[in-house]
Design goal:
The protein is built from eleven helices and no strands. It has 241 residues and is mainly α. It has one domain. Helix 5 packs antiparallel against helix 11 and helix 10 runs antiparallel to helix 11.
């Protein structure tokens, strides 16, 4: 709908581009979400958040081997370490269990790797396909595959009134805009420069939980996590003089 409102060429794509968008949808949306939610079912939310943050490392490392102008550097390595430390801090609790479950933690890490690889593939596609159009096709195709798979394995979809429809519409719009903006950023920037911004997600989640859910964030770990994440982003984007 956003692409149509902007009069983007949503139907003027080649068979090769349709194939690329289908593959992107099946990996970045379908396969990634399958592994992610299977993993969350067998691990804790805290550990899932930490394991999912490994996606930033995968993005930076894969970009190092794929793009000649996006090599791993001291600044990027230090920035990623600081950012990951921030994620660890914001999820820190005295009773944390650091054991590793292959089905739980392993699935979340696999989801992070698939998302990172698909992100680089999406960057390649965005050079010939408008990012908004690309986002619409990959979310639509990948989402349809998930719905079909869900019903095939006995899943059901129950709508409880207008509020449920409104929330579903809100989440759909939120995902579409977020993915479209991310695709635009990927098209015009190096992966290694923008991937570390993903470390802000768990920190932002903690702040938004305090605002909308009334959770307490007046703890030292949140301030320290924000400092670490912001420092990591600054180091990654620091220009050598």
């Amino acid at each position: 709908m956003l692409a149509m409102a902007q009069r983007k060429p949503i139907g003027r794509l080649s068979p090769r581009q349709y194939g690329q968008l289908t593959l992107l949808g099946l990996t970045q949306t379908s396969l990634q979400y399958i592994f992610f939610y299977i993993g969350l079912a067998f691990t804790t939310g805290v550990k899932g958040s930490i394991m999912n943050a490994t996606g930033t490392f995968f993005s930076v490392l894969l970009a190092h081997f794929i793009y000649h102008n996006d090599k791993l550097s001291y600044n990027k390595a230090l920035g990623c370490i600081l950012g990951f430390a921030g994620v660890m801090v914001v999820n820190f609790s005295s009773g944390m269990d650091f054991s590793f479950s292959l089905l739980g933690d392993g699935s979340v890490v696999m989801a992070a790797f698939i998302l990172s690889a698909a992100t680089l593939y999406g960057k390649r596609i965005s050079q010939t396909v408008d990012p908004t159009v690309m986002t619409g096709y990959q979310l639509g195709g990948g989402g349809l595959a998930l719905v079909i798979g869900g019903y095939a394995f006995g899943g059901t979809l129950t709508v409880h009134g207008a509020s449920s429809v409104a929330i579903l519409g809100y989440l759909t719009l939120l995902s579409s805009v977020a993915f479209a903006l991310w695709s635009i950023l990927l098209k015009h920037n190096r992966v290694g420069m923008i991937a570390p911004f993903n470390f802000l997600i768990p920190v932002s989640g903690a702040v938004l939980s305090a605002i909308f859910l009334g959770e307490n964030i007046l703890e030292w770990k949140y301030a320290l996590a924000l400092v670490l994440v912001c420092s990591g982003i600054w180091w990654v984007n620091k220009v050598k003089r």
